[in-house]
């Protein structure tokens, strides 16, 4: 047996139509069979792509036909260019800002009265990856010295640093053998910035990397640090590097701020011709996100904070940025 009732009757109902037409409100997600649903979704995506390309071609032909009379290209909307206006955005000609910068903790560096000398240290008993990262960071920042901290409190390290004329202290913290935090403290009077660190790539993990960096003093590029807070952070990074870059070495360290994430890259460049420039990444690379800015040197218990990132209160809009 097993034919079932449907097979028994000769002409049970009207013949099935040739092609099933989906109702206009049909959604692929209504298909119950997972494989079929996936297949139909891919077909739908393909169709979308074809339509998009066809529309793009049509627009291009229209622009070519109009020639000089073609309307200007539309600027795509991005989170960045839709950014919510920040009232602390710095005007380059602002006298108040100029006065503040002439008298802040970094003024002696920018007036070339002090030369940066950096101490790079780690959290207690660092593992291999963090150790290698510190060593590579020391080759990027001139006049920096790596010191492995063994059970010594930061508050005890800071007076020793000041006594030995260090101008900045960098602490690399780790979690489960992965570098995950950076504390940057300007000596002797602060400020101190705490960053969350992510996406660390060591030199050997970078594809098509150049040879080891040389001893030359690199140039520094700071992008998009537009607010008062951004200016302070940018000045902190700038003061880690000697003020006179050596263009013979053609090395450049970039701190690029995008949506409050600070991307660090280290490159070597060469001018192949008047128009062409070749660049090679030397590494390491990492991403920072500011968590707090503290007045004075490191003091987690009694420190006075200028700015703390409070997600629930501050991140009310995806288009609001603080740097």
From TrEMBL:
Residues 116-299 form the Brix domain. Coiled coil: none annotated. Residues 62-71 have a biased composition (Basic and acidic residues). GO terms for molecular function: rRNA primary transcript binding. InterPro entries: Brix (IPR007109), IMP4/RPF1 (IPR044281). It is found in: Nucleus, Nucleolus. It holds the Pfam family Brix. Keywords: Ribosome biogenesis, rRNA processing. Residues 1-21, 47-75 are annotated as: Disordered. GO terms for cellular component: nucleolus; preribosome, large subunit precursor. GO terms for biological process: maturation of 5.8S rRNA; maturation of LSU-rRNA. PROSITE patterns: BRIX (PS50833). The keyword Cell inner membrane does not apply. PANTHER family: RIBOSOME PRODUCTION FACTOR 1 (PTHR22734:SF3), U3 SMALL NUCLEOLAR RIBONUCLEOPROTEIN PROTEIN IMP4 (PTHR22734). May be required for ribosome biogenesis. This is Ribosome production factor 1. It comes from Furnarius figulus.
